[in-house]
UniProtKB/TrEMBL annotation, chain A:
Family that this chain belongs to: Belongs to the binding-protein-dependent transport system permease family.
Name of the protein in its database record: N,N'-diacetylchitobiose transport system permease protein
Residues spanning the membrane: 16-34, 77-97, 109-131, 137-160, 189-210, 243-264
Topology term for the membrane: Multi-pass membrane protein
Residue ranges of domain ABC transmembrane type-1 in the record: 73-264
Compartments where found: Cell membrane
Lineage: superkingdom: Bacteria
InterPro entries linked to this entry: BP-dep_ABC_trans_perm, MetI-like, MetI-like_sf
Alphabetical keyword list: Cell membrane, Membrane, Transmembrane, Transmembrane helix, Transport
One Gene Ontology term from the biological process aspect of the record: transmembrane transport
Gene Ontology cellular component annotations, sorted alphabetically: plasma membrane
Species of origin: Allostreptomyces psammosilenae
Pfam families given in the database record: BPD_transp_1 (PF00528)
Length: 279, 343
């Protein structure tokens, strides 16, 4: 009895230690990014890394001092939020039909949604360039928003469909017996239950759009129409990379996403595949 | 079968911080703990025309968007792949048809085939590592106490939340030739030859670092979802198995695996797609170099188009990439369509 208990305690100790090591491993790149961003210029490019230093915000000044910084911020927020909102509206309608209604061509549509998820967007960049050029849509924030919307749409449809399928039909039917129309039943009963699904899909969509690099690089050559991922690559001069500025730019690029993640974590986690796996 | 339906369903709308939701049907003596799936029900018998049209109206915006924004570029891309298109033709906006020249050139090119092989190897290694480590970390999370679980999951969330562009930049800094931390660690550990070691000198070591980056960034997704799924299995099941004297491996194989089967299927599917399509990680680290030695298919297509200005060839590569992905994934399509019929 005592032996068993001590063995279990030992097991717990080993597990806790393993958890600590893993936590350190996963956190390390994040820590190294932040710590480099706060180092004084002289402490960044040293053959021996400095672990202790007086923090300074000078690199943040360099990074945000770039011409058009606020334009990049505004553009990034516009494309990411715009793409997500558009995808949510379009996907909610489609996924409701796919999850709850029977109609001809439904199976084909489900298959199309899955296939669309595999689209390798980076390899379509030449075609996208030619189409945008011919339609006079290069350097256009709205055009790139619409492209990002399409990038996140399939995943959004697929995930939301799973969430809707997981809501018991009886709830909806009860609401309709009580006099709701199908639409009000959806709005009052199903929609509130979809909150975790909406959050996890918008999170995924936001990150995809926030991150996108290859297409905006080719389609929007004008600095006025560029986004933050391109800002991140600006500190590479002929004399080498300004790692301090790059790391503070990377930190600022990461913080908003990190905050949203920590905030939504409990609801979003599990949601990501819950929807995809389907009830 | 519902894996995480507790996060969505009405039976347990709010997951407690401890996160343990007893697994549905109740009791430790059943092997299917999830709540019964809703019965399929046929609607729309004798319904008016308007009601028949509703589903079509609902899917119209998505279908139109897909056709215009993805379908049309794909068709144009297919057409491009049969054209001889370089910088000159692009600027002059002329069309020169080349028949199957781009394809025959690629299919007869040893480099193309080595890129194909590299793509498969890269995907297989990465997905295997991600699934293995992710599953183990998920199980570990499930067996930890509250405080340690919070610590580990916060670290995972931080790694997960880091945008790929940012994490690729950080990894390039960690493995910098002159001032990178990796070289310092190797020197400190007493290894020779790490004074100015260039980690991106060969395709193999570049891909090893890409793998590190991809696995590091992808494990949190699998681990946290695995944990979320495990909480729905319910402790009674493990305890019952343990009382019966089952080993850890046996519990995994006979209790966890069957219940989590849909999770494994779907997550592997997603990871295969994501890893096979991975572009930013590879391109941001070393642009597929040195000399294309770390290029997988999407990166190879991008290089052929961008740097070499062989747009027709690049289009042919992308068509082949899509075909390869479709064939490789057809097994999953069948599976998921079958699941679909049970809806």
């Amino acid at each position: 009895m005592i032996q068993a208990r001590s063995r279990r305690a030992l097991g717990r100790g080993a597990r806790n230690l393993l958890a600590l090591v893993l936590a350190a491993v996963f956190l390390f790149p994040v820590y190294w990014m932040f710590s480099t961003s706060l180092k004084p210029a002289g402490a960044v490019l040293t053959p021996e890394p400095r672990f202790f230093f007086v923090p300074t915000f000078e690199h943040y000044g360099t990074a945000t001092g770039v011409e058009l910084f606020w334009t990049y911020v505004r553009n990034s927020l516009t494309v990411a939020v715009g793409a997500v909102l558009l995808a949510l509206v379009v996907a909610l309608m489609a996924s409701f039909a796919l999850a709850r209604m029977r109609f001809r061509g439904r199976r084909g549509l489900v298959l199309a949604v899955m296939m669309a998820q595999m689209a390798p967007w980076e390899v379509l960049v030449i075609v996208m360039y030619m189409i945008a050029r011919d339609a006079d849509m290069l350097n256009n924030i709205a055009a790139i928003t619409v492209v990002y919307f399409m990038m996140v749409l399939p995943f959004t449809v697929w995930t939301l469909r799973g969430f809707i399928a997981a809501v018991p039909r009886e709830l909806e039917e009860a609401a309709m017996v009580d006099g709701c129309t199908r639409f009000t039943a959806f709005r009052r009963v199903i929609f509130p239950l979809l909150a975790p699904g909406l959050m996890s899909t918008s999170l995924f969509g936001f990150i995809t759009a926030w991150n996108e690099f290859a297409l905006v690089l080719i389609l929007n050559k004008e600095p006025e129409a560029q986004t933050l991922p391109l800002w991140l690559t600006q500190f590479n001069t002929g004399f080498g990379n300004d790692w301090g500025a790059t790391m503070s730019a990377a930190s600022m690029f990461t913080v908003p996403v990190l905050l949203v993640f920590v905030f939504l974590q409990r609801r979003a986690v599990g949601g990501m595949t819950a929807g995809a796996v389907k009830g | 079968m519902a894996v995480h339906s507790e996060g969505v369903g009405v039976k347990a709308p709010s997951r407690t911080p401890r996160g343990r939701v007893p697994g549905g049907a109740g009791g430790g003596n059943t092997t299917t703990p999830s709540p019964p799936a809703p019965r399929p029900r046929r609607g729309g018998r004798g319904t008016p025309l308007a009601a028949v049209l509703v589903p079509y109206l609902l899917v119209t915006p998505a279908v139109v968007a897909g056709l215009v924004l993805l379908g049309y570029p794909l068709v144009r891309n297919l057409m491009l792949s049969f054209q001889d298109l370089g910088a000159r033709q692009l600027i002059m906006r002329t069309t020169e048809w080349a028949g199957f020249a781009n394809y025959s050139r690629l299919l007869g090119d040893a480099e193309f085939w080595s890129v194909v092989g590299r793509s498969f190897g890269f995907t297989a290694v990465n997905v295997a590592l991600i699934m293995l480590v992710g599953t183990l970390v998920g199980i570990l999370l499930n067996s930890l106490g509250r405080a340690m679980r919070l610590v580990l999951s916060l670290a995972l969330v931080a790694a997960w939340a880091m945008p790929v562009v940012a994490s690729a930049t950080v990894f390039r800094w960690l493995f910098d030739t002159q001032f990178g931390l990796a070289n310092w660690v190797m020197r400190t550990l007493g290894f020779d030859g790490y004074e100015q070691h260039n980690w991106f000198e060969t395709g193999a070591s570049t891909l090893a670092i890409v793998t590190l980056l991809v696995v590091w960034g992808s494990v949190p997704f699998v681990a946290l979802n695995m944990y979320a799924g495990l909480t729905t299995v319910g402790t009674e099941l493990y305890e019952a198995a343990r009382v019966d004297g089952a080993s850890n491996w046996r519990i995994f194989r006979s209790v966890i695996l069957p219940v989590m089967r849909p999770f494994f299927l779907i997550t592997t599917f997603l990871e295969v797609i994501w890893v096979f399509k991975a572009f930013t990680q590879i391109y941001a680290l070393n642009a597929g170099g040195p000399d294309g030695a770390s290029a997988t298919l999407p990166v190879y297509a991008y290089i052929q188009g961008g740097a070499q200005q062989q747009y027709g060839v690049a289009a042919a590569i992308s068509v082949l990439t899509i075909l390869i992905l479709l064939v490789a994934m057809s097994f999953y399509f069948r599976l998921i369509l079958k699941q679909e019929e049970e809806l």
